Amino acid sequence: MAAAQATEHNSSEEKKVETLDETKARSVLRQVEFYFSDSNLPRDKFLRAAVEESPDGLVSLALICSFGRMRQILGLDCDTKPESVPAGIIDAVSDVLKSQSSTLRISEDGQKVGRIAELMKPEEMIEQLDSRTIAASPFPFDITLEDVEAFFSKHAKVNSVRLPKHVSDKRYFCGTALIEFSEEEDAKKTLDETLVYAGAELTLKPKKEYDVERKKQIEEQNKKNPDKGPSYPRGVVISFQLEKKKKSSNSKKQEPEVHQENESSEVEGEGNESAEAKPSKEGQDNKLENSESVSDEIGGSQITREDLKEVFGKFGNVKYIDFSMGQDSGYIRYEDSKGVETARTMAEVSDDGGLLVKDHIATVQVVTGEEEEKYWKELQEKRESKFDGARGGGKNRGGRRESFGKHGRHNDSSNRRPQKSQRVN
């Protein structure tokens, strides 16, 4: 394995002393910390595997220095492999991380790096996300995400902005924006400030307080319309849209977006002729380019229900997947709303803007309001249609019931073809 080989490289080589200037050192620190961050490591299959396979959780610095973005920062050739990274460069990177990083640890010999803290579970990540998120109101109903982000970025670094819909009419913004900062301390400081937007003083509160108030508003709204109360479980369905993961371009700015890309997976192809033959770009380009040329021929890039369950099942108990292979959208139904909220949060914190499903990005939307009502209504109609068909369908000579659908005539036997909406156990 490349990771194992890299730990022993340059052992007999005379070391050349290298130093990194302030700008380069800052870029190295930011990039390596991002590789091992909560945002990147959980979805970086190659680097996560290297960490999990290591007895002490440390990974070769030579391997890290061979990643695409690190090669650019350090001025190394695009075809540099872990075993060919100069020993002096590794020592210089090691010194920077050892002296400046508060989240990384370096081995005694200075040749390996890893996280100080263990990787958080999704529930813990949501707790941390909420702790650095505030609710601010009132904002104009026609305000945009960009407007809110630009306003709060004057005070601290903003990770994301959400504009929740009104509880009584999902078509409109409720007037309260949710702002996630990069640090919990920034959120606390902002809560103590007096901010004015468009002539109105903003009311600021922690997201947890907003969640409690929001829940009460929803309950009161349901009491006002008892006859319209749903007969189905609410908040357990999400819709998703699949889009082929785009290849990065070399024209992207290095700061601050440089540390927002998942690049380490490109080394997964090390040792393969196809991986070495293609020049590295950014992110997971090599990995995707190599796999696409093969999987497209054999249908390997097609997304199946099993692929979706593998990804979405990490966040809760998946009860139902409404999706057919070849489609670019569908629905996931969880056992409870906790799975929905966890999936939505993990998609939001992803730098890809969604969840990685093979070589596709799945953007996620919680199904609410009219869309939720329509989903359950159509599902009920399908069930009733199936029931009516079972009662009215004829029997063949062997006594087995048969039905007719868009796939033609088939027997109701154990080897029958699955329907579009299939239960996944």
TrEMBL record:
RRM domain mapped to chain residues: 132-217
The protein's name in its UniProt record: La protein 1
Keywords: Nucleus, RNA-binding
Subcellular localization: Nucleus
PANTHER family registered for this protein in UniProt: ACHILLES, ISOFORM A (PTHR22792:SF140), LUPUS LA PROTEIN-RELATED (PTHR22792)
Species in which this protein is naturally found: Rhynchospora pubera
HTH La-type RNA-binding domain boundaries: 18-125
Superkingdom of origin: Eukaryota
Biased composition (Acidic residues): 263-273
Region (Disordered): 1-22, 243-306, 377-425
Gene Ontology cellular component terms for the protein in this record: nucleus; ribonucleoprotein complex
Residue spans of biased composition, Basic and acidic residues class: 10-22, 252-262, 275-290, 377-389, 399-415
Domain (XRRM) ranges: 287-409
Function: Binds to the 3' poly(U) terminus of nascent RNA polymerase III transcripts, protecting them from exonuclease digestion and facilitating their folding and maturation.
A Gene Ontology molecular function term of the record: mRNA binding
A Pfam family annotated for this UniProt entry: RRM_1
GO process annotations (BP): RNA processing
